[in-house]
Amino acid sequence: MRAHQPGSEPIDIPETIPNPVVVPKPTPTPKEPTPKEPGRIPEKVP
Amino acid sequence: MGSDTLRRYTLGDLATSFAERQPYPRGRRLVLYDAAGDFDRNFDWWKASGKHCLVEPQLPFENGRSDLLTGSGSRLDIENINLLATLLVHAQYQGYWGQLGMQLQEEMEALLERHLLNGLVDAPWVRTDDPESDDDDRFFAALQELVAYAFEESVRIKKKDRLFPGWHEILTRSSRGILQEVQSLLQKYRSELVKQSRLLEQEGRA
């Protein structure tokens, strides 16, 4: 966004309070990624 | 009122380089229309075609950029703005969600009327090229009244929370304050939009 455009920087609002009817959503806990199966390599049949 | 933060602005907070810029000054407002910035209209537009949806490759308007001076917006702010902007634009340009958008407008007007705030709709919320819309003070008086009402409601809720823990459940069944009503309204339209989108997707697959 170019600097001369309005809204380039968030404005500073002096008075803010939490909205009491909004229940904050719990932050999801990051999960460990499922381990990948090892790649299968074709083996030479004797 | 649908945000997770209630904000009280001063008129000075809303001053931008576009407030007095000629030939089309946008004044000091929360929402600035058509500020001539970058606007990419190459997005799919869901046009209403009877009961069906016709997907067009471009949005039906040029230079349609709008700026909202929300301060630091949250994820919920972005979701709410996207929802409301979609429904209102569809109502204005006869898009697929046009009827839902009109219904939202009617319900919002009724909500304001219940709280004796419907007169605020006549304030110049956006400055356009109409000279009648150029009064920053009239806009700000309306914004202040709305914000004061929301802050008072917030104090009332906090007091009730302290005196009668668990009153929230009673509140959802009986008469509710404006903050709760706005939350319910947004939730209703979000659910409806998602439900109808899923149906459309299923029809598309069939």
Description:
With 46 residues, chain A is largely without helices or strands. Chain A contains no helices and one strand. Chain A has one strand at 15-18. Chain A is elongated, with a radius of gyration of 26 Å. With 206 residues, chain B is mostly helical. Chain B has one domain (11-205). Chain B has five helices and five strands. In chain B, the strands form two sheets. In chain B, strands 2-5 form a two-stranded antiparallel sheet. In chain B, helix 1 crosses helix 2 (98-114). The A-B interface holds A 1-2, 4-7, 10-22, 24 and B 1, 3-10, 13-14, 16-18, 26, 32, 35, 37-38, 67-73, 76, 151, 154, 157-158, 161, 177, 179-180, 183.
Shape of chain B: globular
Average pLDDT, all residues of chain B? 89
**What does the radius of gyration of chain B come to?**
19 Å
In terms of quaternary structure, the protein is heterodimer
Structural class of chain A: little secondary structure
Helix and strand pattern of chain A: E
Average pLDDT of chain A, rounded to a whole number, is 74
User: What does the overall shape of chain A look like?
Assistant: elongated
* Global Rg of chain A: 26 Å
Tally of discrete structural domains of chain B: 1
Instruction: Outline the biggest β-sheet of chain B.
Output: 2 strands, antiparallel
Distance between the termini of chain A: 65 Å
